[in-house]
Design brief:
With about 375 residues, the protein is mainly β. The protein contains 5 helices and 22 strands.
């Protein structure tokens, strides 16, 4: 009875996080090694992680584990989805009888080809740094959504085996309505500007805005040289990203600094704009907020209150504890899909958009009145 209640709760969590069908259930799997030992004797094969059994008692016979780290210091597990698919996220169920800390230090990646033989650079989905309790399930989002046939979970430079009791992968086929408008990172390598940038002369480092969208997730501020930071003395630090076209924005994911100062990722508003904020006055639309408590080096996804059409992303620190409470972002990913001009000016899609377009001189007030009456006009 307890198991049925827990399973029902898991399904509710998955639905609440907008995860789709489990495309990994009973699919072929592989791993770098398998634990074979114990009292009573047990073989913790890789397929046990996708058998649909959420029993978190390791000796219940439904959990995968790699061999001891002396034998396998860089363990990994993977599942073959059978074909190239969209992968939106996954859930991992931790071991419940002991050793909760083993579900930590993980990288989740997606490959087109078998990761045991492929030389490709995988697409990054998410990571698990730690903090998953005994027997608990953690939900992870690939933001932006990624594509591939193989999902790999690896634990580099491990100090303990990789142990997973169940993996649920969410996603779908290319040809169904779930993927009609697949989300991508529309901020990658786009122009970025900021109210200030931090300069560290001793390390010959300039933490410029473009580092926040360069595709490099290294969270070590000095050695990684891929994090943006505002300057000391900037009392209203703000980063702007120009997406280059109109997109429907559904979420924004930021990567926190990993070497220190994790507490700086707090009191932040993420907003969207239609026009260049350096040239036009416009009231931004709020996507969401970050209040704090984001772990060092972790990703944090803000799901917009409602998908909104925009070209510019604004990330602003709304209050500061002291002059050293800087705006620091090691990577910013924006999830969205292209919005055509007719969609942007369509009242049925977003009435506020056409009004803002008119207010900023993109379309005339006549066109706005037509839109408010249900007409469609393209933006010149």
């Amino acid at each position: 009875m307890v198991f049925i209640v827990c399973l029902a709760a898991l399904l509710v969590v998955a639905k609440a996080n907008n995860f789709g069908y489990n495309i990994a259930l009973n699919r072929p799997t592989g791993s770098s090694s398998v634990f074979v030992n114990g009292v009573p004797p047990i073989t913790a094969n890789s397929n046990l992680a996708v058998d649909g059994n959420f029993n978190s008692d390791f000796f219940g016979g439904s959990c995968f584990s790699s061999a001891d780290v002396a034998t396998d210091p860089n363990p990994f597990w993977f599942v073959d989805l059978g074909a190239r698919r969209y992968v939106s996220g996954l859930t991992l169920t931790n071991r419940g009888d002991c050793c909760a800390d083993r579900l930590s230090g993980l990288m989740i990646e997606v490959f087109e080809f078998n990761p045991t033989t492929s030389t490709e650079t995988p697409e990054f989905c998410s990571m698990v740094i730690g903090g998953v309790a005994l027997g608990q399930t953690v939900s992870l989002s690939c933001s932006p959504m990624v594509t591939g046939r193989y999902v790999r979970i690896r634990k580099p430079s491990a100090t303990a085996p990789l142990t997973i009791c169940e993996v649920v992968v969410s996603g779908g086929n290319f040809n169904n309505k779930f993927n009609k408008f697949p989300s991508t990172n529309v901020a990658l390598n786009r122009p970025a500007r900021a109210t200030s940038q931090f300069t560290f002369d001793a390390a010959n480092l300039v933490a410029s805005p473009g580092l926040a969208v360069d595709g490099n997730f290294d969270s070590q501020f000095v050695t990684g040289r891929s994090c943006y930071s505002s300057a000391i003395g900037d009392t209203n630090p703000t980063l702007y990203i120009d997406l280059g076209a109109y997109y429907y924005i559904s979420s924004v994911t930021v990567t926190n600094r990993g070497d220190c100062c994790a507490e700086r990722l707090r009191n932040i508003n993420i907003e969207t704009l239609l026009k260049d904020p350096y040239r036009y006055l416009e009231f931004p639309k709020l996507c969401g907020t970050i209040t704090g408590n984001v772990a060092a080096g972790a990703n944090f996804t803000v799901n917009c209150f409602a998908p909104t059409a925009a070209r510019y992303i604004k990330i602003q620190k709304t209050s500061m504890v002291d002059s050293n409470d800087l705006l620091t972002l090691c990577e910013v990913q924006v999830t969205g899909r292209f919005a055509s001009h007719s969609e942007v000016t369509n009242k049925s899609v977003d009435n506020d958009v056409s009004q803002a377009l008119a207010a900023n001189g993109i379309i005339s007030s006549v066109e706005t009145n037509d839109n408010l009456s249900g007409g469609n006009r393209a933006v010149n």
